[in-house]
From TrEMBL:
Keyword field: Isomerase
InterPro entries: IolE/XylAMocC-like, Xyl_isomerase-like_sf, Xyl_isomerase-like_TIM-brl
Molecular-function GO terms, alphabetical: isomerase activity
Xylose isomerase-like TIM barrel domain segment(s): 20-250
A UniProt-annotated Pfam family: AP_endonuc_2
Name of the protein in its database record: Sugar phosphate isomerase/epimerase
Amino acid sequence: MKLSFTTLGCPDWPLDLIVERSVEYGFDAIDFRGLTGEMNIWKLPEFSSSIEETRNKITAAGLSVSCFSSSVHVFSTENFEKNMNEVKEYAKLCEFFGTRYIRVFGGKIGDTDREQAIQTVVTHLREMAAVAKNHGIKILIETHDDWISCDNVRKVMEQVDSENVGVLWDVHHPYRVTGEQPEDTLKALAPWIEYTHVKDSRITGSNPHSDFTYCLVGEGDIPIMHVYELLKSNGYEGYYTLEWEKKWHPEIEDANIAFPHYVQSMKKIAMEVQI
């Protein structure tokens, strides 16, 4: 089991502390989603003028960069040029760090007809995939926002080049927000799933799809062990990445609690699952 985490969980930590704690807690990799308040990390010295020093710190610690998680919303036509520029910046970072993936969102579609939205996303992903191909990497569309349903994501993936576009399965959202069972998600998206985001939650109100609170992994009711069983039996060898959204939800536990808890919980799952 390969374990990573997104830096959303430690939004105030500087790079040196991120690397130090990654090793201390037992992670294998880091998924960069912002650093010390800057979401567009290529603008920071650590990923521009001092980029070689950053790579050396990460590799010397025995770590990898599992993904660069962008802010790109693929559906957006208004921001398409900006999104393409962001993909290009992250593609350069991927190539430098030996990172395979850039995460993108499908994005909100508003009142747009679903089939029309699918075609827009397909068109935009094809252009982004061309950039990815030039750098030998892959764009991952996440099961998120208006693209949580496996059926909608499947319709996109059937029309793009799977060599340069894949799926990031956020194992929380389909189950919690739409009631989609993990078996159904995997059945629909298995050929394209190359990465995961893991988080847990508990129901706090009358609507189980919207009234929930994030909690430490294993303290909610997201069937994480079952998801692991399904993925393992399907031959998945990618990362299990903790997406602890401390930046967006400051009330949840600090990283120095959530991060080691996650590693311990996932290693326990790995030991208990015999496939």
